[in-house]
Write a structure and sequence with these properties.
Elements: H1 14-41, H2 46-54, H3 73-86, H4 88-107, H5 110-122, E1 127-130, E2 146-150, E3 153-164, E4 171-177, E5 189-195, E6 202-203, E7 206-207, E8 222-233, H6 247-283, E9 285-286, E10 289-290, H7 295-323, H8 329-354, H9 364-371, H10 374-377, H11 382-406
The structure holds flavin-adenine dinucleotide.
């Protein structure tokens, strides 16, 4: 293996390889020379986003009939690895847009697809995905934002938190309760498509307070939003009124696409950490030799490379399963859990190899160290992934056992 994946080994054809290579080139030419400044200023990476948009990244997974490139999730995942080798925040900027685009293609009515997908394919319209509320993100069925039917409209009240791209988005897929009394709770939850003007802090009943300042993962807007008597048309339920109460299932389907993205953020970030460690270990001397000649350091590098390869393979495997169209909760959960924990370990090892030099403010490895924990949280924490994997495992085991007895 090499730190840089050989794309043909993943079965990519020439067109798919070109997509990923374009992202790799944008990262080398535009992102890596500027990322430390963007991070330090918490600056939106307009130049990089424009270049990625021109390369078609916002329409990557959108079908050709809507003006997108219609590529498969393996190509998408490998493109995200490349983007996040430059900066994890780029993966976040693309992620919610892709989740919503895939949900529209899977569940949207023909009118919803026609209304949104062509503009999403060009990147003119960007989308956000909002489930979390201030009181919690793991127990999603406990959300309290509600939509009440008032004639030909829904009236929405509540509060959302941690909306990635929340300020820049012109469309948000929002999880809310349309029947707060329903049992089980998941049956009372719907996914609403809410339009707004990008970059406006106030729109109808939507108010965005100043953006959340973070430990790392800078540049991307993370928004809180209060919603007071905000009115949307009756047809705003994803999939139409027949899909009322289907929101929980739709969002969980969508979040699996997000888990592929987050897993590949881990792979890209860890790969960059390994590159920095390899470079430094070839420069720094101790005890009369380069660090890379010391076996203890070489073992660390070997472990880091092996873990990255393992995380990438698991994620590509999950992408292939998800590409089949159904649920892939266990596979995407395993990929997300593994790749994000590995990212944390690899970045810390790279920091140790840099030792004091890595601890100087402004060092790239220091930024990776601040960015890495974000992916342990977003799209469900490691504990929640283990819960999902455990539930899926036991469900599959019980079905297998039942089949043995029933034949
Ligand atoms: C930078 C950033 C961007 C984000 N972007 C988005 C976004 O675009 N859209 C969106 O909807 N959300 C987003 N989120 C929110 C994210 O999905 C949630 O933060 C995450 O799901 C965890 O929720 P929480 O932070 O409320 O933790 P909590 O749910 O309060 O959990 C706290 C702790 O308890 C643990 N825990 C909870 N329940 C259990 C259990 N049953 N068993 C074991 N352990 C448990 C958790 O693992 C965690 O360690 C973002 C978060 C961050 C930090």
């Amino acid at each position: 293996m090499t730190p840089t994946p050989v794309l043909e080994q993943f079965g990519l054809d020439a067109a798919q390889t070109a997509v990923v290579t374009d992202v790799r080139n944008i990262v080398n030419d535009i992102v890596l020379p500027n990322v430390q400044r963007w991070d330090a200023n918490d600056e939106y990476p307009t130049e990089a986003v424009d270049a990625l948009s021109a390369a078609g990244l916002f329409g990557l997974v959108i079908g050709k009939e809507w003006g997108g490139q219609g590529v498969d999730l393996t190509t998408y995942a490998l493109a995200i690895e490349e983007a996040c080798r430059g900066w994890m925040s780029l993966g976040g900027i693309i992620n919610t847009h892709v989740i919503v685009a895939k949900m529209l293609q899977q569940f949207g009515t023909p009118e919803q697809q026609e209304r949104y997908l062509p503009r999403m394919a060009t990147g003119e319209l960007r989308a956000a995905f909002s489930m979390t509320e201030p009181q919690g993100g793991s127990d999603l069925q406990a959300i309290t934002t509600t939509a009440r039917r008032e004639g030909a409209e829904w009236s929405i009240n509540g509060e959302k938190m941690w909306i990635a791209n929340g300020l820049r988005a012109g469309l948000m897929a929002v999880l809310l309760k349309t029947d707060p009394e329903a049992q089980p709770r998941s049956r009372g939850v719907s996914c609403m498509l809410i339009e707004k003007t990008p970059m406006e802090y106030s729109f109808g009943g939507l108010e965005i307070p100043p953006l959340i300042k973070k430990l790392g993962y800078n540049g991307i807007d993370s928004a809180r939003m209060t919603i007071k008597d905000h009115k949307v048309p009756a047809e705003s339920i994803l999939g139409g009124t027949d899909a009322l109460g289907h929101g929980f299932r739709q969002m969980l389907w969508g979040v699996e696409i997000g888990r592929l993205n987050v897993a590949m953020r881990g792979v890209g970030t860890a790969r960059r950490a390994l590159e920095l460690a390899l470079t430094y270990a070839g420069e720094r001397e101790a005890f009369g030799q380069k660090l890379r000649e010391i076996q203890a350091i070489r073992f660390k590098l070997a472990d880091m490379a092996t873990k990255i390869e393992y995380a990438r393979l698991l994620t590509v495997h999950a992408a292939r399963i998800k590409q089949l169209g159904g649920r892939a909760d266990v596979e995407t959960g395993m990929a997300k859990l593994t790749a994000t924990e590995i990212c944390q370990e690899v970045v810390l090892e790279a920091l140790r190899i840099h030792a004091a030099v890595g601890y100087i403010a402004g060092a790239e490895i220091g930024r990776l160290y601040r960015d890495a924990p974000m992916i342990l949280i977003g799209e469900g924490t490691s504990e929640i992934q283990k819960m999902l994997i455990g539930n899926g495992l036991l469900g599959r085991w019980d079905r297998e056992e039942e089949l043995k007895t029933t034949g």
